[in-house]
Every structure is written in structure tokens, then in C-alpha cells.
Design a protein that fits this description.
Chain lengths: 144, 144
DNA sequence: TTTAATTAGGATATTTTTATCCGATATATT
DNA sequence: AATATATCGGATAAAAATATCCTAATTAAA
């Protein structure tokens, strides 16, 4: 469904969100340990998220990554997915046709429509704050 | 969503299905042209589908690929997807956790559940015959 | 039985994705 | 100003996915 990079990006964002709640900055090292991902590769993804203005980086000593508290509830999963994988997963054709549309549909166009739309709706209506709260309460987990 | 190989596999199967209706065998060359895919790579995928008993090959002169007419309606998209990409797309965790479950869910487990289940249901309840009939009637298209 | 047509399959190449390494740059503290 | 601690970013490596090429094996027809 998503690329490895995107899976790491989502999990990293959630972990950063949890810590930003407490006002704590986190490093790629801590993140990679917590989400069980390769550290250097994860760092690249973090840079990508910074460039897309999804997370914030504080450079230099005592630096790290954070997400501004007031933005936690407004950052949607779709932003992270789109930043890393693009929008093909929820906007593209299921069989890879470039010009698939209602007027010129691929064989699975109708069958995929509701699935794709549900996915899109879900990604656009799930925010980081709710995901972070579930981790904090022990309702969900980032690894193992 | 699916790999390129899987997209080609689905489209190839549909094209073979259409021709098998008429009792006509088709070659990798014809298939690749019709679904707009690289020929040799497509041929590999066809071999894979043969090994999985989804399509049938007739070797030697005047040979080609076919699907037994009586099986057209019973071959499901899920079989093709599973043969080429495995079942991860509709059975695996959205964030790649190995042991994601109701008892130990990833952060998006609940949110993904209905999407994954709908996808699974759709793939398991869509057969090659209906897809082939839509192409034949001009209701859907394999390329461009 | 020879020939031509066709799938099977191994070897290899290319591209993309995933992953690692290291020096440059930035910055808070001493 | 010097130092220690971080992120940034370029170079490179490794693995996986995608794609190509060539020969072997098979088989219908002449």
C-alpha cells in the first residue's frame, strides 16, 4: 500500500507528536529506535517532512525534531502520504492507466472507486493528534 | 497499490479472457501490444500465472495462452493479485507491523480495517468474465 | 523428418527503492 | 572563541523491481 519510506514517515510523525505534547525534541536516533527503522534512512525522511513543512527541525546542539502543538490536530495523514509517496495511491488508477476517468475507465474503475474514495477520505480526515493520543493511552502501538 | 507486474498481470488476464471466449489463443506479443506493456517482462508474468494455474499455455507452433472457458467466471481478481504480489495488500498491516492485530493494533489499524476489508471483498468477488465483458462491450478500456 | 512458430527459462541490464557513511553546517553552552 | 551536539546534504552501496536478450525446449504442419 504505502512505501517503506512512507510507513516510517507516518510512524515517526506520530512519535514526534507524542513528544511535542510534552515539549520534548527528539532525535533521529530516538525515533528510529522507537519505530524500529533504519536510523540514517529515517533521517532522510525527516528532512523530507521538514521541507514539506509538516515537522519542524531545530538545528545545532540541543536540537531535534518537533511539531508545533497548535498544528497537531490540523496535520492530516494525507499530507504525510502525499509528501512521501505522492497522491497516486488515492487519486491514481488502480491499473496504472494515465487517463483513467469516468469517460474512459479501466476495467476496475467502478469497483475501485469506493475503496479509493474511502481511503482518501480516511487519510484526509485522520489527524496526528488522535493517533498520538491512542499511542499515549496504550490503545495502539508503533512497533513489534 | 499494486506492483507494475500485477497491473500487467490483471490486464493480460482480461485480454486473454476476451480471446478465450472466441476460442482464440494469444501471444505475449499481442498481449503486450494490447495492454501497452513491455513484451518480455509481460511474458515472465504470464509464466508466473501459468505456474499458478490461472492461465493455460499451449507450447510450440500455433500455441499461445488461453483461459478455459468454464473457468472464466470462477477466476477472481484476488487469485491474480495473490499470485503476483502476495496477500499483503489486503491482509497485511497498513504500517508494516508484523504482528498487527486487534489485540496489538498499529495506529491506523481501526481506520484501515474497513478499507482493507472492502478491498479484499472486492478482489474476492470480482471475476474475470465480468471484466472481460465490459471490455468487449466498450464499457471499459485496457489502455491509453 | 524437417521446418517454422511458439512458450520456457536462464543470464544480464537498468531503474527505483531502501539503506549507510561521512563531512559540512548550525547553534547552545561553557 | 572554543567546544560539543545536532541537523543537512552529498556520495555511495545494497537490494528489489522492472526490463531486455538469447538459447533451449516443444509441437503443429508441411
Amino acid at each position: 500500500m504505502f512505501s517503506k519510506a512512507c510507513e516510517y514517515g507516518i510512524k515517526a510523525s506520530i512519535f514526534i507528536a507524542i513528544n511535542s505534547y510534552k515539549g520534548k525534541l527528539v532525535s533521529p536516533k530516538e525515533i528510529a529506535k522507537e519505530i524500529d527503522s533504519p536510523q540514517a534512512f529515517t533521517a532522510k525522511i525527516l528532512q523530507d517532512l521538514v521541507r514539506h513543512n509538516i515537522i519542524n527541525s531545530i538545528k545545532g546542539a540541543y536540537g531535534g525534531f518537533e511539531i508545533r502543538k497548535e498544528e497537531l490536530a490540523s496535520i492530516k495523514l494525507s499530507q504525510i502520504v502525499n509528501a512521501i509517496d505522492g497522491d497516486n495511491i488515492y487519486n491514481g488508477c488502480g491499473l496504472g492507466l494515465n487517463n483513467c476517468s469516468e469517460e474512459h475507465p479501466c476495467p476496475v474503475h467502478e469497483k475501485f472507486k469506493s475503496i479509493r474514495d474511502n481511503l482518501k477520505y480516511m487519510l484526509e480526515n485522520t489527524n496526528l493528534e488522535e493517533l498520538a493520543l491512542d499511542i499515549k493511552s496504550g490503545a495502539s502501538f508503533l512497533k513489534v
